[in-house]
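#structure-requests
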Amino acid sequence: VPAVIPLLLMLFPAILTSLSVVREKELGSITNFYVTPTKKSEFFLGKQLPYIILGLINFLILVAQATLIFDVELKGSFVALSLATVLYVIVATALGLIMSAFLNSQIAALFGTALATILPASQFSGMITPVTSLEGLAKFIGEIYPTSYYMISSRGAFSKALGMADLLPMITGLAVAAMAFTLLGIALVKKQDG
């Protein structure tokens, strides 16, 4: 159960965020953004914020299901896990917006974002195989992909009773990833067509 939470929190916020921008491209309503004095960062954060809130609500539902339905005790720090979750959902939504910069149809956004999230999150993050046992490119992806950090945070908080001090390196890694993905996403937002 603690390993499924990172997968779901990467997949759904990223897909929803990418679809929201691509839908505007398809409908032509993104032209309103092109002709307004709105900054790229304002547009990006405005698109990201509702999905961050939805992701956090989703997190609370997943934790409630884990503890109440599946009887998995949260032994570690809920505050540390929540902080890691905020940063992780920022990364997921930023990834969705990055994908929307390259894709122009909702179908492409759905499949492209699913591919960019599910494959690394399930294969290279330690969900199935520990990152330390991977080799080559797979190990490199596992060491830098944000799901690896959140996977340790989720498993640590649920199964190993890890607290804030124990999870601080993972939270720091997620903070760096959140900053990098957000800045990259803002840089890739196009202010004008073509």
